[in-house]
Prior knowledge:
Layout: E1 5-7, E2 12-15, H1 22-31, H2 33-37, H3 49-65, E3 69-75, E4 78-89, E5 94-101, H4 110-124, E6 130-136, H5 140-148, E7 152-163, E8 166-176, H6 177-183
Parallel strand pairs: 5-6
Antiparallel strand pairs: 1-2, 2-3, 3-4, 4-5, 6-8, 7-8
Helix pairs in contact: 1-3
Bound molecules: coenzyme A (COA).
Amino acid sequence: MTRKSLFINKNLELRLPEKEFAKTLFQIIEDQREYLGKWLPWVEKNKIEKDSLEFLKSSILFNNGGQKLTTFIFFNQELVGSIAFVKIDKRNKVAEIGYWLSKNQQGNGIVSLACQRLIKYGFEKMNLNRIEINIASENSKSLVIPNKLGFIHEGTTRESLYFNDKFYDEEKYSLLQKEWFKNN
Ligand SMILES: CC(C)(COP(=O)(O)OP(=O)(O)OC[C@H]1O[C@@H](n2cnc3c(N)ncnc32)[C@H](O)[C@@H]1OP(=O)(O)O)[C@@H](O)C(=O)NCCC(=O)NCCS
């Protein structure tokens, strides 16, 4: 991504990571540890602001190397979440999406819009063939998103996630480029 932002509408955009986001990012993590940590294993590893800074630095490197594409969701110029291709398999033209949103911004469709924008970029600009979303079976809020966006449910993998001292089943979803172009 050469531009700094992918615009969604006048209030909403996806910005590439910058080291300057560290303070805000860490403040969100610190304030919302329980809510975010329930489904995001990296939250407990983020203990001090420097951890957020290191995360941003590594995101910039991975973005530049094309292994990942991390972006931050800005609503009214304020960092409210993140959406990313957390894994990019260039050879097979496959990427996996991950996302989170600040607790008080939920329920406004922000993540759905952010997903649609990243998917459009992935299929149209990166020429991906397949985009995946993998979600813990118990994360009902998150399961709404791939279903709403027309992803196909491919199955359940048993106990493929382990964190917070517990195994979780995962629901596997995918969308293919041809399916996206048929509907967009
Ligand atoms: C999962 C998570 C991102 C969902 O956030 P969200 O706000 O519910 O998701 P959206 O932004 O797509 O909003 C969807 C809701 O907004 C409503 N909505 C309002 N306006 C909308 C619009 N223009 N377009 C789409 N949905 C809209 C929808 O009806 C939907 O409500 P519902 O949940 O009652 O069905 C959020 O709960 C989160 O970050 N959780 C913690 C981290 C996490 O679990 N990450 C995912 C790991 S796989």
